[in-house]
Amino acid sequence: MLSYRASIPLSNRTLTRLAELIRTRRAERRSRWRRLDPARQALLVLAHLRNGDTYARLAGGFAIGTTTAWRYIREAVDLLAALADVA
C-alpha cells in the first residue's frame, strides 16, 4: 500500500500504468539504483499533476531532494508525452 499525506482521487490502474512505464524505461536504460521505486515515483508525479504540489513539498513528503523530485517528475512527464504522441 502506497501512501501520501494528501488524499488524491485516482484509480489504481492509473498509478500502475505510470509505474509500469517508469519500470520499463529504467530497464531499457539499465538504470542504477534510485531513491524511489517506480510505484513511489509514479505516486509523486501524480500528486504533482493532480494537486499541483510544489517540488519542495513533494521532496519533504517523499524524503528526497528538491532536485530529485523535479527530475523524477520531468522523467515521467516525458514518458507520458511520448505515450500521447503515439495515440
Write the SSE topology.
Elements: H1 12-29, H2 38-51, H3 55-62, H4 66-86
Helix pairs in contact: 1-2, 1-4, 2-4, 3-4
Describe this structure in words.
Helix content is 70%, strand content 0%. The chain has 87 residues and is mainly alpha-helical. It holds the Pfam family HTH_Tnp_4.
Sheet with the most strands, sense and barrel status: none
Structural class: mainly alpha
N-C termini distance? 31 Å
Radius of gyration: 12 Å
Whole-number average pLDDT? 86
Continuous helix count = 4
How many beta strands in the DSSP annotation? Answer: 0
In terms of per-residue confidence, which ranges show pLDDT below 50 for 5 or more consecutive residues?
none
How helix-rich are the residues, as a percent range?
A: over 70%
Domain module count: 1
Report the β-strand fraction as a percent range.
under 5%
Overall geometry: globular
Helices and strands, in order, run as HHHH
Protein name: Helix-turn-helix of DDE superfamily endonuclease
Keywords: Endonuclease, Hydrolase, Nuclease
Domain Transposase Helix-turn-helix: 34-82
GO molecular function: endonuclease activity
Outline:
The chain has helices at 12-29, 38-51, 55-62, 66-86. With 87 residues, it is mainly alpha-helical. It starts with 11 loop residues before the first helix and ends with a helix.
Give a quick set of tags describing it:
Transposase_HTH_dom; 4 helices; single chain; 87 residues; endonuclease; mainly alpha; globular
